[in-house]
Amino acid sequence: MKVSPQTVALTTPISVEPTAVIAGFPVRPGLFDTNGAMALEDGVNFTIHTCYGTSCELLLFHLGGDEPYAVIPFPESYRVGDVYSMIVFGLKIEEFEYAYRIDGPYDPKNGLIFNKNSILLDPYARTVTGQKHWGVNKEHFYHAQVVKDTFDWGEMPQSTKELSDLVIYELHVRGFTIHHTSGVTHKGTFAGLMEKIPYLKELGVNAVELMPIFEFDENMNAREIDGKKLLDYWGYNTVGFFAPNTSYASSKERTREGLELKELIRALHDNNIEVILDVVFNHTAEGNEKGPSFCFKGLDNKVYYMLTPDGNYYNFSGCGNTLNCNHPIVHQLILECLRYWTVNYRVDGFRFDLASILGRNENGSPMNNPPLLRSLAFDPMLANVKLIAEAWDAGGMYQVGSFPAAKRWAEWNGRYRDAIRGFLKGDNWEAWNAAWSISGSGDLYGGFSPDYDGDYAGYNSCINFLTCHDGFTLHDLYSYNEKHNEANGWDNTDGANDNRSWNCGIEGETNDPEVLSLRRRMIRNACAVLMCSRGTPMFLAGDEFGNTQYGNNNCYCQDNEISWLDWSFLEKNRDLFEFFQFMIEFRFQHPVIRKRLPDAICGMEPLHTHNINAADTTIPRDARTLSVCFAGYNPETGRDDLVYVSVNTYWNDVHITLPNPMTSGHWHLYVNTYGDGQNRYFYRGKDAVRIDGEFILRPRSVAVFAVR
After folding, report:
1. Which residues are catalytic?
2. How do residues 305-316 score in pLDDT, each as one tens digit?
């Protein structure tokens, strides 16, 4: 048998011959510092650890089998500290699946629930078997299979884009193309998403944020409501942190799992599009005391989960359990996982679901300087990947603007979402928060000062969004005053109640032309403000063509037309798509929106806000109209870059005055969401309309000006 030079370099030199026979298999002590299962030339190395377990057995299964054909106990001499490791010779990875059984004390009040009969999944498994067919019940236990990685990334460099230079497009891999209108061959898969890359290029986004693609079991908690089968569609219940969801691959990849995903990521990179993964390290699919025990509970329940003094599960995730992220062993697993996806899948960034949990101590209390967050921020292998926190959790911790950032972490800006939603629909008391938000949330992130040296990363800390998977689509935000989640089967009690939405006069679908016109204007307003706000914009897939979820703001269980993108809306609402396309293009053409530039030659202040008159930089507390001006010198063009954004949430026309651009040129109108009466809402290049000093801002509209 041969061991690769890399393996030899990472391990103590050993003989490569078997030293014993157990259960009919030639074996020897393994590579203790290599977690999981690794294929060698004439066998497989298996390594697993348990702090409180007293013995461990390796189980081998025929493909798809429920009963092991071999049980190989680890001798005590195959244990170093808490780590069991064994090389089993003569195994061919194409021919078996594996799992473990671990024995130990049973004392639930102290968090010990070992069961020597429980079949346990390898927490470092690179693939979870039996999950290939979406929606098909898997009645056997979770097993793993050994994966051989032969994918060649060549000399592909990591992206050097700054976070502020991204426009992020959040999507669900299955829902993006599974609808019959998607026009792709491989619907609902990584390959199907790859077929849509030309569309992403046409739209203009340069980053996709994929909702969970780690292996999850969509049939977990499956139920039937009104004749429809409801599944764990979103996937925020991780089964295997190192394994891609095999049902998202268009073909079988046995022992080559992840190949199609890698091809997708390479194709996206080739088209200048970054890939961000939505990762869930706050809880697992094992749930609470009533949930299954298939991995961490059986390995070391007391280590992997936050437990109350009586041995029950803290539930800061709202999903039954809470991962004990700052325990050194869990800390190590998370770090190894992120390194694995960074190196083996060339992922560009991670968005951490309910990330405030990652800063809690073992007893659930918040930590001042969480070791996990600091470790991820300074890990050399993760140095160039984006780290994005959903800076709150279900236990009431809300850290927007105060997440322990170490100048590395960005945040989903929940304040931006709430303030802009409220102001655009007419909540004039949100004017100050809206002005701060459009300006880059400098009050939260310290982004105004050029020499700011606080704990945060200035504008790079700010992910601005109005919609995401969790909540209304942009279409529904202006079509419904109330959520309509009856299809979820919880009597409309689930999902957020504070949506800051507005139905524009009629609840739900309508043919009223005035209501429809207003709704489309409100969508344009939202898009224009988002793309003209300092910080990194993110929006939900389908918003650009008016996709609807029919008023459901919590589609986690809806694997059907409620959640799937209906691509027929793209042609019906082509004008919306073209507006999004233009606003993204405009944002890229004006770097002064995205970041502070050198001071403008004309002497205009880098950033200032106004109400109606540009000579007055005060905004009344209850303003219905506000403007934000960005100014700077663009070295790439050798000219000043001046952009003025005006928002009118009032029912009447408002006369505004623009700042004096002095020697830089003249203001030109590039965007008018009210339109010119000829269904024209934006102007490219020389078509932009010169504006001399004053402008009539039409009711409930947004106008964007730039100096030319």
Report:
1. 353, 390
2. 999 999 999 999
